Amino acid sequence: MAALQKSIDKRNALINATIDLVNNDGFHATPMSKIAKMACVSPATIYIYFENKQDLVNKTYIEVKSNYTAYAFATYDESMSVEKGFEVIWKRIAEFKLKESAHAMFLAQCDNTPMIDEESRQEGIKHLQPLLDLWSRGKKEGIIKPLSDYMLYAYSINPLSFLMITQNRGSVKLDAKELDQAYDAAWSSIKACI
């Protein structure tokens, strides 16, 4: 049992080191030796868990995306109205991005650069299925604008990354009132004019 926990701890240390180094130095400036050093393991240990650097980054992405979406959908129920469901999901995403900013920053980098392979990117999209299903229902009911899921995400969810970055820089401190205003802007950007 202790050996299993030690193995899990090493893998988690490698994941956390990858997130930290990619966030601070970028994908290309993050060699495996630096990841191993930060994780306090030998470079050879990485290859017990991952095939290569690309595999390490892809699996880190999938793991972080899975945690992100599990958090985002934890209080969502498919029986909610489209508007209420979107509010619940959006506010959970905002909470995750502001509380887990290192993970959110890593996801933003992965989503906005070619460092993740297409197979892993598609796997990451699958984790968003409850939101995509909600939007599909909203389009059918005429509540959500008939835009592609990419457009809906760009206008309603991506602005949270900007807010997270500005808060991390100390440019703004988001309080409950500002988050409510941000939600209202996000909802207004995707709701159909009825």
Automatic annotation (TrEMBL):
Pfam families: TetR_HI_0893_C, TetR_N. Gene3D superfamilies: Tetracycline Repressor, domain 2. This is HTH tetR-type domain-containing protein. Residues 8-68 form the HTH tetR-type domain. The keyword Signal does not apply. One of its GO terms (molecular function) is DNA binding. PANTHER family: ACREF/ENVCD OPERON REPRESSOR-RELATED, ACREF_ENVCD OPERON REPRESSOR-RELATED. Keywords: DNA-binding.
